[in-house]
Each structure stands twice: as structure tokens, then as C-alpha cells.
């Protein structure tokens, strides 16, 4: 929860697998979690946008 409030990327494990496969960091956008176990959509994205707009 704090990560979302602070605007951190919340990614699936597939991002780590893709980075390991390519042996470099890959774009986070394709791997951002878009829905949580409660059905809330775009929580991490919204949190990042709010954190960016505060600056």
C-alpha cells in the first residue's frame, strides 16, 4: 500500500523474468499490475500519477 501511495512501480514477477532473459532492464509499463485481488483497477498507475503531480 505504501508503495502505491509513494508512486512506486508495482510489477508482476514476469518483469523480473523478462529482465533476466534479456540480461538488462526492460520497460516496466508492460508489467505493471493493473488489477488487485479486490477488483480495484489501475491502483498502482493512479498512485504513480498522483505522486508525479505532487512534485
Your description of this structure?
The protein has 55 residues and is an all-alpha fold. It has one domain: BRCT domain (Rossmann fold). 47% of the residues lie in helices and 0% in strands. It is built from three helices and no strands. The radius of gyration is 12 Å and the shape is globular. The model has no long low-confidence stretch (mean pLDDT 85). InterPro entries: BRCA1-associated (IPR031099), BRCT_dom (IPR001357), BRCT_dom_sf (IPR036420). This is BRCT domain-containing protein. One of its GO terms (biological process) is DNA repair. It is found in: Nucleus.
Briefly say what this structure is:
The protein has about 55 residues and is an all-alpha fold. The chain has three helices and no strands.
Q: Assign a percent range to the helix content.
A: 40-55%
Q: Number of helix segments?
A: 3
> Largest beta sheet, briefly?
none
CATH structural fold name: Rossmann fold
For the CA atoms, what is the radius of gyration? 12 Å
Any idea what the shape is?
globular
Number of domains: 1
Quaternary organization: single chain
**What's the CATH first level?**
Alpha Beta
Q: Class by helix and strand content?
A: mainly alpha
> What's the total count of β strands?
0
CATH architecture: 3-Layer(aba) Sandwich
